[in-house]
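wait is this the right file?? whatever heres the structure
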């Protein structure tokens, strides 16, 4: 049966069972294209779940194409229900739970990676094997992608190497391991799973469900479901449609939020997500992953740990791990470097096995030894994973983006702890932190990173205030100028180390992405390149933050020295003080023309500005006290 015949039978099955999508049509695209027409519609297309491309010039689509989409046959007005799929055509979690394997899982105490996904997977795998061609859902199964070759867990070693330096490699390996662990865990309490699905089929089902399921509320009950036809809408933001389950109609419906022109692709929005989530779960990365307000949700984890040579390592580690039930010793710290080639080979091996007849033991061996990994590489990889597990005890990871969110504040808090000296550590680790909603609590760090203008601030922080903290995540304001300077220098060093782990620079990535011959649209290697570029953009942002902060701190240090009388008048005339520097930054705030990001400006103006005010206030206070002492002494003498 040809692909077009499968699609026709699929649509007929839906219509015969009460579905309505008369305003739409399904299309399959050629996923072997290496270039695309330069028209407006192509430029705004984003991908979803598999990959998508609307190409009016494509006349022939290969039979094994896994790129699909939904298009409007006519102009569709706003607030129109364009898709309605009856409840009987949905595959729900409860259907998987009703199978014998599902019942065995429910009665067990298995700790599975994604329980709701598991039950949807179990139903598909059981139904396809048990009912075969007689399955009610057979037309739907026939149009599901067969290989999911765009999903990173199925990438080849040659494709994975483009992720070198990216934390996504670890996530891919962890995903492969989690799926494998789930498979054998279920087999241990429901051996019949081995009869209906191999490990590779189990992985295929997992990624099908992961990329296609909808979280719904049906008759007041939260569940997840596969919704035929609706799961073929590709991703685009801002969203053009909305979906829900209509209890009155007992159907899943999609409603337009704006007018959609005839011939245009009809999109769903998968939400505001980092590209690593799009790539890992749906098999694509969005080239311009930016919201209307300019915010980019792309993230990168920054890893922090205590220097084993820190003179107060033991004391600092106690506070570093406070609340996590662990303590550290110097012996637990082991320096290591990842072997990216071995890691890529191992992940590739996990996706390479395609046997449908091997027993459980053979599957595990295939999972580890395929892709021609030699024993030395395997041994090295296992050593690295052991080291990684040891280091995970003390390494803390903070996932940050180009924003002023909570994670940025946590990052800065941890940096302050890592760079504090013995006196500062005793102060911050003595007791619990005050409530940050309390008027007595210094709060300019929160205000600054939220981007609130300095003109709205009425309170000030004194670095001398005895503020106490619960954990290393709670140091939300600077301790003093020395500690903040050391924190920014540490941040710059950490960022430099992270950037050095990549084999290419950000400028090289941008150049590569302009090359659609070697990095074709919608290819796995292009998606990998988009992912690593996004990580580097975030890292460069924080490197710029640290460098800018250090420059401003140098200006503040000179302002303080001038206030102490340490400079001659001619030197003071040549000095551009803090206020002048901040005014210049605020006037030139324009990212497109090389300006400074607004969050960096607010940090420098408000956070560093508060430290400066405190230091100058202390100098004036010291002079007043000294003056009073002199006057008192003079009076006594008289």
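ok assuming it is, sequence goes like this
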């Amino acid at each position: 049966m040809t692909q077009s015949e499968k699609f026709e039978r699929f649509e007929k099955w839906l219509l015969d069972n009460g579905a309505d999508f008369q305003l739409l049509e399904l299309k399959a695209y050629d996923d072997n294209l290496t270039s695309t027409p330069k028209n407006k519609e192509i430029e705004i297309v984003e991908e979803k779940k598999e990959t998508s491309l609307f190409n009016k010039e494509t006349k022939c689509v290969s039979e094994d194409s896994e790129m699909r989409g939904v298009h409007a046959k006519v102009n569709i007005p706003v607030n129109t229900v364009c898709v309605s799929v009856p409840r009987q055509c949905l595959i729900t979690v409860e259907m998987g739970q009703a199978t014998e394997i599902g019942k065995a899982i429910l009665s067990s105490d298995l700790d599975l990676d994604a329980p709701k996904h598991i039950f949807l997977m179990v139903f598909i795998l059981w139904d396809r094997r048990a009912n075969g061609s007689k399955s009610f859902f057979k037309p739907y199964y026939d149009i599901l992608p067969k290989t999911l070759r765009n999903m990173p867990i199925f990438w080849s070693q040659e494709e994975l190497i483009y992720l070198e330096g990216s934390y996504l490699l670890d996530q891919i390996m962890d995903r492969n391991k989690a799926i494998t662990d789930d498979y054998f865990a279920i087999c241990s309490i429901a051996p019949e799973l081995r009869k209906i699905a191999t490990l590779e089929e189990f992985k295929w089902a997992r990624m099908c469900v992961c990329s296609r399921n909808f979280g719904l509320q049906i008759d007041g009950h939260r569940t997840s479901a596969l919704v035929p036809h609706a799961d073929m809408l590709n991703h685009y933001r801002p969203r053009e449609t909305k979906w829900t389950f209509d209890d009155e109609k007992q159907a899943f419906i999609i409603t337009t939020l704006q007018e959609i022109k005839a011939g245009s692709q009809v999109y769903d929005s998968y939400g505001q997500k980092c590209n690593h989530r799009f790539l890992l779960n749906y098999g694509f990365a969005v080239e311009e992953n930016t919201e209307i307000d300019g915010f980019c949700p792309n993230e990168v984890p920054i890893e922090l740990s205590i220097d084993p040579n820190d003179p107060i390592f033991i004391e600092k580690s106690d506070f570093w791990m406070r609340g996590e039930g662990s303590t550290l010793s110097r012996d637990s710290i082991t320096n290591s470097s990842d072997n990216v080639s071995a890691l890529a080979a191992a992940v590739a091996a996990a996706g390479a096995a395609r046997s449908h007849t091997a027993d459980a033991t053979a599957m595990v061996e295939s999972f580890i030894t395929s892709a021609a990994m030699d024993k030395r590489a395997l041994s090295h990889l296992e050593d690295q994973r052991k080291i990684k597990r040891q280091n995970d005890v003390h390494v803390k990871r903070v996932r940050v983006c180009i924003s002023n969110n909570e994670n940025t504040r946590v990052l800065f808090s941890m940096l302050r702890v890592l760079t504090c000296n013995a006196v500062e550590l005793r102060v911050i680790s003595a007791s619990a932190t005050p409530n940050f909603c309390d008027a007595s609590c210094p709060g300019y760090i929160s205000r600054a990173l939220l981007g609130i203008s300095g003109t709205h601030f009425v309170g000030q922080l004194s670095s001398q205030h005895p503020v106490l903290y619960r954990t290393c995540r709670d140091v939300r304001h600077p301790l003093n100028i020395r500690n903040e300077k050391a924190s920014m220098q540490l941040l710059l060093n950490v960022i430099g180390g992270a950037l050095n782990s990549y084999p290419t620079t950000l400028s090289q990535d941008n150049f590569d992405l302009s090359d659609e011959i070697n990095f074709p649209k919608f290819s796995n290697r292009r998606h990998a390149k988009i992912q690593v570029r996004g990580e580097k953009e975030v890292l460069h942002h924080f490197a710029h933050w640290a460098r800018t902060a250090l420059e401003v701190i140098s200006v503040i240090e000179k302002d303080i020295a001038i206030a102490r009388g340490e400079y001659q008048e001619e030197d003071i005339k040549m000095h551009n003080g803090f206020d002048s520097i901040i005014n210049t930054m605020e006037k030139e705030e324009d990212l497109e023309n090389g300006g400074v990001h607004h969050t960096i400006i607010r940090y420098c103006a408000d956070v560093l500005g508060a430290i400066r005010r405190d230091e100058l206030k202390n100098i004036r206070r010291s002079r007043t006290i000294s003056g009073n002492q002199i006057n008192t002494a003079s009076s006594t003498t008289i």
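Residues 524-563 form the longest helix (40 residues). so i think its the right one actually
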